[in-house]
Amino acid sequence: MKRQPVVSSNLAEVGYDEETATLEILFSEGSLYQYFDVPRRVYESLLNAPSVGSYFHSEVRGVYRFARL
């Protein structure tokens, strides 16, 4: 999955697979996670949020199933 860099102290890169509705996040400390069944609007809102980290913590973390890769 292709990821793009984001400006955040906690998140380094974010990617999205439209076909599987999978959000992929590379954290600044190096861990990589995939979040499942994430609507595209959530991905787009994450990229456009004034604070990517705050949006992630309020709208993604604890909301969607995930796996650490």
Number of domains: 1
Radius of gyration: 11 Å
Q: Judging from the principal axes of the Cα atoms, what is the shape?
A: globular
Arrangement of strands in the largest sheet: 1-2-3-4-5
Cα(first) to Cα(last) distance is: 13 Å
How many beta strands in the DSSP annotation?
Answer: 5
Largest sheet: 5 strands, antiparallel
Average pLDDT number? 97
Main structural class: alpha+beta
Please bin the fraction of helical residues: 10-25%
Entry keywords:
single chain; alpha+beta; 2 helices; 5-stranded antiparallel β-sheet; 69 residues
Can I get a quick summary?
This protein has 69 residues and is an alpha+beta fold. It has helices at residues 40-48, 52-59; strands at residues 3-5, 11-17, 22-27, 32-35, 66-68. 25% of the residues lie in helices and 33% in strands.
